[in-house]
Amino acid sequence: MNVEELIDTETYSWNRPLLEQYLQPADVHQVLKIKLDMRYTVKSGYWTATHFYHDGEVIVRPEGSLEIKRNIWSLNILPKIKQFLWRVVSGALPTYTKLCTRGINIDPTCQRCCQDEETINHVLFTCPHATAMWRCSCILPYHVFTLNLEENLQALFDFMKSLSESESNRLLVFWILWLLWKSRNEYVFKKRNVHPIEDLRRAIDANTEWFRNVVLTNAESHDKLSSLQDGNLANEMESANIAGREALGFLIALQQTWIRGWRRVWFEGDNIELCNIINQVKENVDLGNLLCDIRHWMQLLLIAHWMCLSMFYHIPPVWLISFLYYPYTI
To answer: Which residue ranges make up each domain of the chain?
Structure first.
């Protein structure tokens, strides 16, 4: 017989009838002098939880989709990002609404936008700051996030699975989530408020560093890159990035043109692929929202939108040569 069998599990005291049954009266008197420790410890709490289960008791399953949680733990990303994503899907981030459910008397309104209650989904997807950051990323073209947190997370995993493991943008969406939460904390506790593009740049830098130092160092990626012949593009994403940089430069030119009050402007370019995409001759989902912004600003500039939409010069026109190649022309 073990000592624990002589203890009444309901009152957590000595079971006197059992003591008198198995021990001598003198020994019973000595045992009863031993006071059982009733202080709570982790060990005693665990013992209580495992021994006092009542039939019919409903065990509530933790929040979050099991499939999404499995996808989170299988990510090739920093452990702290995995833990953060698990807390997201489990509803364990201390947002204002979550703190209110814990009995803390605070205003649940988002301090950044002052429009809606600060839920996890609001901070990461529907807050104006988050919406602007996702739009600037151009990695989920034309996608509108819903009020359902799990649907939005599943959309990110679907996007990730649509890309190969050699593409750096594959994990960028999760770095954006991390920076959105980090930016929120910096705003709340340090009063740091920056443009969404600045937070996006931090996410891109972190993702790029992780991709170069971890993903590209595995044997499969190394063999793939080393097998390319000289003169080929070593990184498949570079061509898309070149088009994206030129498209972003064109967008800035459109915006600066509008700011200066110029409305009848003629734009020309030497990238035929980008011209075809902008002129809707060719589609390109990689540019996403960036392409939408370009076409929006082109509509505000009459000549750019109506007169020159389909015009492209592989060779500069004669009247423009003197400006482009001065002082090499007479």
So the answer is: 3-51, 66-226, 238-324
